[in-house]
């Protein structure tokens, strides 16, 4: 038996199987009607609006850490040379 014959036989078996399933559904009359009350889920969450107070004065006293967002690889190695970053494990290339 060649691969082409095998593929044709396999396709034919699948075609017959799925045709039988479709015919079985048609004979049964399709889907049974579902009442609206039988499967209805309702989720109600009680939410009350809350008035937000204006933001209090910031108590920020400054920090030695300066962040400028992301850095490229060259800047990262410059920061490492200046000991501005802490290595937690070895860097592999």
Description:
The protein is 38% helix and 0% strand. It is mainly alpha-helical and 93 residues long. It has a domain at 1-30. The protein is flat and about 80 Å long. It starts with a helix and ends in a 12-residue tail after the last helix. The model has no long low-confidence stretch (mean pLDDT 79).
Strand-residue proportion: under 5%
Could you state the order of secondary-structure elements as H and E? HH
How many DSSP H or I helices?
Answer: 2
Report the helical percentage. 25-40%
Oligomer: single chain
Distance between the ends = 53 Å
Nearest-integer average pLDDT: 79
| Radius of gyration of CA atoms, rounded to a whole number | 34 Å
Low-confidence spans: none
In terms of structural class, how would the helical and strand content be classed?
Answer: mainly alpha
Shape assignment: flat
Count every beta strand, where a strand is a DSSP E run of 2 or more residues: 0
Largest sheet: none
Could you give the topology of this structure?
Elements: H1 3-28, H2 73-81
Which descriptors apply to this entry?
single chain; 93 residues; mainly alpha; 38% helix
